[in-house]
Design brief:
The chain has 298 residues and is an alpha/beta fold. The chain folds into two domains: 177 residues, 3-Layer(aba) Sandwich (Rossmann fold); 113 residues, no CATH class. It is 46% helix and 16% strand. It has a seven-stranded parallel sheet, with helices on both faces. Helix 3 packs across helix 4. It binds magnesium ion.
Amino acid sequence: MKIVSDFDGVLTDLTEEGHRVREILREELLRVSGRKPAQVDQWLAFADAELDRNPHLHGWKVRGRVTAFANEDLFIRNNGLASCLELWAARDEHGLADLKGALEREGFADFNAFANHCYGMMLKETQAGQIKPIDPQTRGMIEALLGAGHELVVVSNSGTQRILEIFASGGIQAVSHDQDPRARFRVRGGAMKFELGDVSRGFEVGAYFVETSRPHYERILEEERPGAVIGDVFSLDLALPLHLARTRGSAFEGMRLFLRGRHYTPVWSREKVLGSREPAAKLRVLGELSELPAAISE
Ligand SMILES: [Mg+2]
C-alpha cells in the first residue's frame, strides 16, 4: 500500500520546536516594540485567552480564512496568536496599532509575516543541531513499513532539505521526490497543504468549519493516489483526503485515514475521527507511531 505521511508532529515530536518559536516570538516582540516585558506578556496573555475562548475563529489564516485552527498544533498556535494581534492592531485595540507600525518599520508586512520570521529563526536552530525533533519511533516504523512492502511518501509543508536533514540526524536515508519520483520512500516537501482555493469548500465539525479547498495538496493526492494518509493536524492533513474519499468514488474510496494523537491534539478532531461512521473511509486515532505498520493491514 502507498502511504502518504505528514512530517512535523508525525515523524517528529514538535513540542520543543513549537515552544522555541513561542519564545522567539516573545523575544522579538520585546526587541521590536521596545516595550517592557510586562506589556508584551499582557498582549500575549490577551491573545491566548481569546484563542482559548474562540478556537474555531482563530489559527493559521490564508486569504482571510482559517486553514488550520489555533488548537491543532503548537506551530499553528503561534500563527493564531499573530493573526489575533493583527486583528486587534487593525482596530487599534490594546494599543497594538503602534506595535504594527514598529513591525512595518522593521520590514514586516504584518504580524503573520513577523510570525513566519520567528518560525524561520527556529528552523535555523534545528538546522544547526540545537534541536533534534526526530521521533524515536520513526526509524523503526519506516523500516517496518518498507520491510512489509509498503511505499511511504512524506508530504509536508516543511522544505525537503529540512526533512532530509532531520531524517539523516536520526540515521534515516531518504531521497527527494524531485530526485527520484519512483522511489518507494521519498520526500515531497513544500507541499503547501495550507494554501486555500479561491472558493471556500469544506464541512463543519461542531463549531469548526474545516476547509477542503486545498489545490496544491489535492494535486499531490491525485498524483499519488495513496491507500492511507497519516497526519497530526486534521484540517491540514486529513480533511481533504476525507472529502476525496466521500466524493471521488473508487479512486479514493476505502482510504485509511490516521490521526496521530499528540498531547496537543484537540478533543474536537480526536472525537471527529473516533466517532466517525464514514462509509467512504476508515478513520482511526493512532496513540503511537509504532502502531502504524499493523494498523495498515487491519
Ligand atoms: Mg504536522
